[in-house]
Amino acid sequence: DKHPDADFWAALTRSLMRAGHKPALLGGPAEQALGAAVAGKLKAPALNLCGRFNVSALAGFVGELDLLVTPDTGPMHVAVWTGTPVLNLSLGPVNPWETGPFSPGHHVVRASLDCAGCWRCHRPTTVCKEDMAAAKIAALVEALLAGRDPSSRSGRGLELLRSRRAAHGLYVLETLFRIPSHGQEASGAIHPLRQARPRTGKAWFGALFGRIPDQEEAAAWNALRQSYPDAATEIRNAAAALAVDLAKAARGTSPGPLESPDFWIRAPQSLRPLSGYLHMYLQNALGGRSAFLHALSLLERIAEKG
Question: pTM of the entire structure?
Fold first, then answer.
């Protein structure tokens, strides 16, 4: 669900070729069939390089590009490492706050839906794909390559974000524009709670790892509690519930991070940055007793603050 299909890539490639650009189709061995399908739909010469490169050759090639248009993939991070600008198509059950691109100056485009950024879709169809039309992405690519303001391009139903560094060197995605779809009653403005939760989470993690003063963490929590008491209560209750799950996993009475690949996603979305961290932490520690005790202490710290 987080990858566009052959029709999308063919339409985007065709639009860019008409504008005088030279797009190349990139992918690993698993994308060779997709690349062939796209090239077959174009009915025009196309540079199909799917399956042609090893990692080092891919890095060399990507480093020469003006822009890489990609969903959440390994080559996206290769492009970031080589300094190539990225336009990340953030589709389906994926969250760019957790997947990047993490260096400053890259762009992320996703649906302007409140559910965007989930890790498990509960809708009958993947609605976040419906407004991600190839023509809109082509217009964004044109603007980015020409150095124009991308907010002036067609973006109905989309949100465009740009990566940067904020205070303390932390990763931030700033919204350049957010335009609702036709029929949506929302104004397109971002609900403040969508910004307050990430700020609180960053302050908590930053204080945990010594990057942010404890006073800033306390201020972030106080602001969340005062402005959105229900959200603070949700986070506190979710932390307590996750602590119960971890305690059961530590005793071996229920599947835990070592046995269940979706352990972290069972937590509410507001707690998933922490549940995802704990999942990896406990796996890396091989589920040792001291690791479980540390995880439980972190959840207790959240429950007390929420």
Answer: 0.76
